[in-house]
Predict the 3D structure of the following.
Amino acid sequence: MSFAFVFPGQGSQSVGMMAAYGDAAVVRATFDEASAALGDDLWAMVAEGPDEVLTQTVNTQPVMLTAGIAAWRLWRDQGGRIPDVVAGHSLGEYSALVAAGVFELKDAVPLVRLRAAAMQEAVPVGTGAMAAVLGLNNAGIAAACAEAAQGEVVEPVNFNANGQTVIAGHKAAVERAMEACKARGAKMVKALPVSAPFHSSLIRPAADKLAVRLAELTLHVPQIPVINNVDVAIENDPARIKDALIRQAYNPVRWVETIQAMAALGIGTVAECGPGKVLAGLSKRCADGVVGVALADAAAIAANLGLE
């Protein structure tokens, strides 16, 4: 049975998270390469913090991209086989594209910092919000959002697992939608500690800035198939990959369908590559017969080198 790699996005970061990978030279070299491209010491952010600096979107996005690639390079350095397909959750899609050879890390790191800054500029802090909704079906969430909008924006933006969806939009509209979801029987509704309503239509202005920068970059044909977030499609044409990344910024992350697409390709194991274990836990809830493993430390990488 074949296997896939998936890369985490924003939300899996924590100070000291790379210590779990030991003192592998390839990990530190990856951070050095990314830091040089960015002109900022990403290793110090991860190793020393403080947390309030690491969790700023403009820092989190380049850090998580680099962390995913550091874990990927450690896997490959230790003899781990190339997966049959890759994907990444939101920001993690950029890690997947670097792993697949579409981007050079030195180009991707400044690009995601620009993406992060553009997203924050599109919606000033305090204007937007996001919330997780558990135990309510997609139709119920859509109805709650429609009822709560009242001329503002609130919409589903992350379909993370069956029964686990994130909504985003204007702060007041999100708060109304949270109550509407509870009224429709949601088991839990929780506001998320984020600074912008990622993947909502409010982020569209950021996509225009992202498009300008992407037009300046040379992308390569993927060496590993990458399933994208926005269309749940595998693209080989660099121009179409750029277009999908632009649209990804202000459209929902279709993660359930992504894992289901992997299952349809015969994938039996989905390995989360990078700090955190969220995606590994979601995998089996997205598609029957799929097992998730987390390569969140050096021991997990060593234990799973037999994946094939």
